[in-house]
Amino acid sequence: MNEIRVAIVGVGNCASALIQGVEYYKNVQETASVPGLMHVVFGKYHVRDIKFVAAFDVNQNKIGRDLSEAIFAQPNSCVKFADVPPLGVKVSPSPMLDGVASHMKQAFHVHQLEEKDLALDNIVSVLKETQAEILVNYLPVGSKQATSFYAQAALEANCAFINCIPEFIASNHEWDIKFQKKGLPLAGDDIKSQLGATILHRSLVKLCSDRGVKVEETYQLNLGGNTDFLNMTVENRLHTKRISKTQAVTSMVEYPLPTRIGPSDYVPFLGDKKICYIFLKGRKFGNQPVNLLVKLEVEDSPNSAGVVIDVIRAVKIALDRKIGGALISISSYAFKHPPIQIPDNTARQWVEDYIKGKRKR
Fold this sequence. Notes:
Elements: E1 4-9, H1 13-24, E2 41-42, E3 45-46, E4 50-57, H2 67-70, E5 92-93, H3 120-129, E6 134-137, H4 144-156, E7 160-163, H5 173-182, E8 185-187, H6 197-210, E9 214-224, H7 227-231, H8 239-250, E10 259-266, E11 273-284, E12 288-299, H9 302-321, E13 325-326, H10 328-334, H11 344-355
């Protein structure tokens, strides 16, 4: 039985899209080509092989409820595209640490935890009892302390760790060494969407570079109405987010590139819709100007769910092969701030080689 046992921290919109996606694609034929996935069967793993066994959150509307219900509890606003049956997984309480900004406590319906719930041992026990193999981090942007807490919990529970947020774990040498020593795979950091602001912006800058256009300056402005954007209205939550998104774009050229990239405003009525504006100013043949302005509009949370499904299966392959530490190929393909920044077409080929066993990591 090709079962992949997955735990999630942060039962928000992204978790909702991921869990719905596994249900949505569970009966897809193995030879089918479907939107949002590299392969229906990744290595030997079908989408339906993913089984959710544990989840953690601070929201009193979610704690104690079946995960299939919790993913639709307020303030989640992810579009419903699949009917998820009861999963038999109750959401466990999570320590807040720095995962909840002061202005987010009301929006997140924060549950006041007892002291025992704050212990690392409590989280590790849940992971061990549920026999979780992989822990997926969906904490809010700016959760540096909480992300380190859960990375450590994964180590102590012998779980692989997938870091979907812009706190640097897979791209941090010290964490890489810790996971290598335990023989546990690690993937991250900061998930890319299927067709999101970062992947589009990278592609445009790379296109200019490949065609001999010198990009002089560029910006990326993002608007949205979900709790992710509400959380990011406080600038001190955004330090690593801006680094991650900016380096993902500027790594496509070999010269300094003035940029301004990141969340710009919270517009409540947009819900889970994200609107992105990308501007590039450059010089082409004869030093003549060229300007480019692009608008992208997407449902935000489902945009990355398929990528995470691919990452989960890549990490499971590493578990099977007893590979520890940061997985270079899938991290470079699927994340904005991987250990190594390479062009996306190269990263895609590395992943295909990894699936076939031609690349170790």
